[in-house]
Specification:
Elements: E1 31-38, H1 39-46, H2 50-76, H3 84-88, H4 105-108, E2 112-118, H5 120-128, H6 136-160, E3 163-168, H7 172-186, H8 212-225, E4 232-235, H9 244-257, E5 262-265
Parallel strand pairs: 1-2, 2-3, 4-5
């Protein structure tokens, strides 16, 4: 019989676990902290200069890394008694081995330190005049951007033996806050700051006329790059129980394309 832990074992591309690779499992780890980068703002400031965009993105990732490191340093000095439920109930790996007055630093190293991002679509619109649902060139640039971010956190992880990861941020509140700040600073830019929100993570904008299968095909490659978490949504009209073949076709398309976490939304009547 297979080890029950294998049910929770993480693929290398979707777990971000270098601290203790022999225990590469999903449960009892947690995310220590994440900070999301405003990609559209960097793209607006780049004024079409893609090289400058990447240089500024790297600077912002370095700044976020400093913040994550500072948070880890602070909470690592805390003791078991500061987290009575998390440590007392064994929520964290190895926490059951600690005494009440022990520091929790070594236990927390099982967790992840994540850099997130928001608004890839609007960033591509600012850089290239089209997002990745409209242009193959923009899709290639989008993958280059997120691939660059993934390489950055992978390099950190390898150098420091801590779990730095890349998060496809699902921040509904942040998407509205960022665009308000940017519209006030840079004005209304068509396709970038002219709506009440930035598009979450690497998603193709909801207002883009695109088939479910094309959306799946275009978003799927980003799932393999975002090892701190990701999701793709598909909207289905009507009652899916009346068209199970279509529902199954979407699920199979997600599987075959490599969607790590997919959701099918439909109206409730």
């Amino acid at each position: 019989m297979a080890d029950p832990k294998d049910m929770y074992r993480c693929p290398v591309s979707n777990c971000g676990y270098v601290y203790d690779p022999d225990r590469e499992i999903a449960p009892r780890r947690g995310n220590l902290s994440f900070t999301s980068i405003n990609l559209p703002r960097i793209a607006i400031k780049a004024k079409g200069d893609v090289q400058w965009f990447f240089e500024e993105l790297e600077r912002k990732m370095a700044l976020v890394t400093e913040q994550l490191d500072e948070r880890l340093a602070i909470i690592s000095k805390k003791k078991v008694k500061n987290f009575p439920f998390l440590m007392g109930e064994g929520v964290w790996l190895d926490s059951e081995k600690l005494d009440w007055e022990d520091e929790v630093g070594e236990v927390l190293k099982h967790g992840t330190l994540s850099i997130g991002f928001i608004g890839l679509a609007e960033a591509l619109k600012a850089l290239r005049g089209a997002h990745h649902g409209e242009s193959e060139e923009s899709q290639n640039l989008g993958l280059e951007i997120i691939g660059f971010m993934r390489k950055y956190v992978d390099k950190l992880s390898e150098e420091r033996k801590l779990n730095y990861t890349l998060l496809a941020t699902p921040a509904e509140g942040l998407s509205g806050r960022f665009v308000k700040l940017d519209r006030k600073r840079y004005g209304q830019i068509a396709g970038v700051t002219d709506r009440e929100y930035y598009t979450n993570s690497f998603h193709i904008p909801v207002y883009c006329p695109i088939s479910a299968f094309d959306k799946i095909r275009l978003e799927a490659p980003y799932h393999a790059l975002t090892n701190a978490g990701h999701i793709s949504y598909i909207e289905m009209d009507g009652d899916p129980t009346k068209n199970l073949d279509a529902f199954e076709a979407v699920v199979r398309a997600m599987h075959d394309a490599g969607i790590g976490y997919g959701s099918i939304n439909h109206p409730v009547d």
